[in-house]
Amino acid sequence: MENQHRKIVGYKELTQDDIDLMNKVKEMGKTIGALVEALSTLPNTDPRWLEIGKQDLQKGLMSLTRSITKPDFF
After folding, report:
1. Are 18 and 73 in contact (CB under 8 A)?
2. Does residue 47 lie within any of the structural domains?
3. 2 belongs to a structural domain
4. Residue 5: what pLDDT?
5. What is the C-alpha to C-alpha distance for residues 26 and 21, in angstroms, rounded to an integer?
6. Is residue 62, in this structure, part of any structural domain at all?
7. Domain that holds residue 39
8. Does residue 38 fall inside a structural domain?
9. Angle at Cα 70 formed by Cα 31 and Cα 67, nearest 5°?
10. What are φ and ψ of residue 20, in 5° steps?
11. pTM for this structure?
12. Disulfide engineering: 14 pairs with which of 3, 18, 31, 50, CB 3.0-4.6 Å?
């Protein structure tokens, strides 16, 4: 469905600059995800800290996304 975000309460129309920034964040997420995956294969990596780092990085990427989209809700 074209422009389906318009039907979701709290989301704004994105400019092309917003879209370009979102795509940069998403691409960086792929790169970071690959790094986390590579670290998970190493025998001496502490899995607890790896999971903490993974979750913090995911939260950071989501925060960057929200900084671009600026939703008007909690």
Report:
1. no
2. yes
3. no
4. 66
5. 9
6. yes
7. 23-68
8. yes
9. 35
10. -65, -40
11. 0.83
12. 18
* CA-based end-to-end distance of the chain: 26
Q: Is 71 helix (H, G, I), strand (E, B) or coil?
A: coil
Q: Would you say the C-alpha torsion 7, 10, 15, 20 has a positive or negative sign? A: negative
Tokens 């900084």 locate to 67
Contact 25, 64 (CB under 8 A): yes
36, exposed or middle or buried, with CB in 10 Å at 0-12, 13-18, 19+?
middle
Averaged pLDDT for residues 10-31: 93
Dihedral sign of CA atoms 6, 21, 51, 33 in order: positive
* Span 31-67, pLDDT tens digits: 999 999 999 999 999 999 999 999 999 999 999 999 9
**Contact status, residue 32 vs residue 57, Cβ threshold 8 Å:** yes
pLDDT at 66: 93
